[in-house]
Amino acid sequence: MSPMRCAALxxxxxxxxxxxxxxxxxxxxxxxxxxxxxxxxxxxxMQDADTDNPGMLWVLDGEALWRAKTGSAARACxxxxxxxxxxxxxxxxxxxxxxxxxxxxxxxxxxxxxxxVENQNAQTxxxxxxxxxxxxxxLALQSRGKPIAIDxxxxxxTIAAGRDIFRQRQGQLNLxxxxxxxxxxxxxxxxxxxxxxxxxxYPLYRLEWQTLGSLQRRLRNCLTGIRAENHxxxxxxxxxxxxxxxxxxxxxxxESPAVRP
Amino acid sequence: MPSTCKPSNLTSRRDALRLMGAATAGYALxxxxxxxxxxxPADMRTAIExxxxxxxxxxxxxxxxxxxxxxxxxxxxxxxxxxxxxxxADHVRAIHIVTEKNPQPNVISCRxxxxxxxxxxxxxxxxxxxxxxxxxxxxxxxxxxxGSVNIIITLGACLEDLI
Amino acid sequence: MARALVxxxxxxxxxxxxTIRTLMSHxxxxxxxxxxxxxxxxxxxxxTFIATYNGEEIFRAELFPAIAANPFITxxxxxxxxxxxxxxxxxxxxxxxxxxATITVE
Amino acid sequence: MACAATVALAAPVxxxxxxxxxxxxxxAIPQSLTGTTGDPTRGREIVTNRFVGLCMLCHTGPFPDVPxxxxxxxxxxxxxTRWSVAQLRMRIVDSSRVVPDTIMxxxxxxxxxxxxxxxxxxxxxxxxxxxxxxVAFLATLKEN
Lengths: 261, 163, 106, 144
Prior knowledge:
The structure holds 4 protein chains of 4 kinds.
Chain A: H1 3-21, H2 41-48, H3 55-67, H4 77-81, H5 84-87, E1 97-99, E2 104-106, H6 108-119, H7 130-141, H8 156-167, H9 177-181, E3 188-189, E4 192-193, E5 204-206, E6 211-213, H10 215-225, H11 236-248, E7 259-260
Parallel strand pairs in A: 5-7
Antiparallel strand pairs in A: 1-2, 3-4, 5-6
Chain C: E1 4-7, E2 11-12, E3 17-24, E4 46-53, E5 56-63, E6 72-78, E7 83-91, E8 96-105
Parallel strand pairs in C: 2-8
Antiparallel strand pairs in C: 1-3, 3-6, 4-5, 4-7, 7-8
Chain D: H1 2-5, H2 40-48, H3 55-58, H4 79-82, H5 85-94, H6 128-138
């Protein structure tokens, strides 16, 4: 075999090797940086003032829904949980959480829906519905300024599964989440600064969307961008990715409802 | 030496790398790129003539503030301030914002008067492309003044599926 | 649910220029977009915003599709007397919403 | 011997769906994928269109009409001086054969990819004709 051929084959081998190993370290905590820090002053101002932050429109809805009796049980969230400002303080910063009954992770949206089914005899709410966004925004607001803390002892396997997805090259463009958000953050993808991709502000108001959206919507956007097959809302894969990302952002302050470009 | 061309036989490995596997049922990707019809600078001139009734527009007295870095054309913060004492005798009657390349030139038309105290309004607008934005003020003496700014729009890098 | 976020200072000195900040929840569908089936999505926007102070109009705006979703409008007014400031939004498909706030002027 | 053992794994250069076979020599593909020379004018359009060539999402280049270029990849200025036509072709067809851990997608490869969205499956990012146009255009970027 000629050296040239050999070199080509070796290169091929390396692709395979790097795809399998993908072995980079997790983003160190001392390098964590909220996307807020990369935003233009005008966009920051929009997040900072509650009366300028469009996400607060959903919070107002969420507050009303928290108190509204719903389902055939005619029970409001507040009937069991009381004042969310006390009972829900810091809760969203711990989600996805380990759900003992299911023996696995549950997202904030998943918990809201489980509560509706089990305690209110109400229908589940669809991802990205106004109601689910409103309730999750209202709950997430009660964690604003609180550090993200994921139960890594109980969710270790989910975190590991999420990390694998984060590092998997995929799609027609053959990119992994890690390549952009661990290795090239701060660079410009066209005019857009690549963020580290911390989910510390969800649900958030994205100027591009002109509406509030969940982390899973954002993850699906990225998968579409790299021309990859998408994962369904609430799928194991997106929950794993969400859990890993929240763990990766551990210690960072919650900003919900954040504003992002 | 040419590389050989063999059918690649990686199906099983690829499947193994599929991570938890299955394609999501019922998934349908729909990429929607909205490319609206664009107005032209001539349409903007027509819109301005409609506002002024053909009167002369002088450059000056109107300050259009748009942050230097517009992060997304779908939500562009802007503020218009007009130099005016805002007294009963000398005030701003109206402030208009028009654009050059949006599907329709008009953005907003505000009516105000001496009770405003200051001639300043702000809003958030959509800009479909990098373009000139013009603010026009109608004064109580019937004169028209304008200020303009060229805005560079950052386009999102990725398209998203419509939900 | 037509939610609004309105910021009007509850107290002001007579003659003081106050800033009123408003945010109204509305998608502001432009009428220039098409659905996935290629059908045009009809326009659905807020067209008019009016502010009155003790019944007298102090500010009015005509809105076009180029106003971003969840319209944000700020304007100023001179605090003349104690009373009520009322804000009204009207739009396509019979959209109507209003908010009131009282102001004490000393 | 190691090489021989990896033939099956490392032979991505296969006629699969819309991808025709091509011959690699060192870090270059000497022959045009279409048998003809591309059109640099069309090539420029592809390179500067963020929805077709995608180049400017990551690269910077000497294109004053393209706002907000990327900063993730080398400046395309002087690409035609740095590389021969054959080397340019290789780097667009499958740059991972030159730089294994590159973030640059292979523009003319449909295998060794995972979880490709259904509408892109079996399709390269650009067609052979488009790649030749892009190569022809990049070869004109001589200014350093």
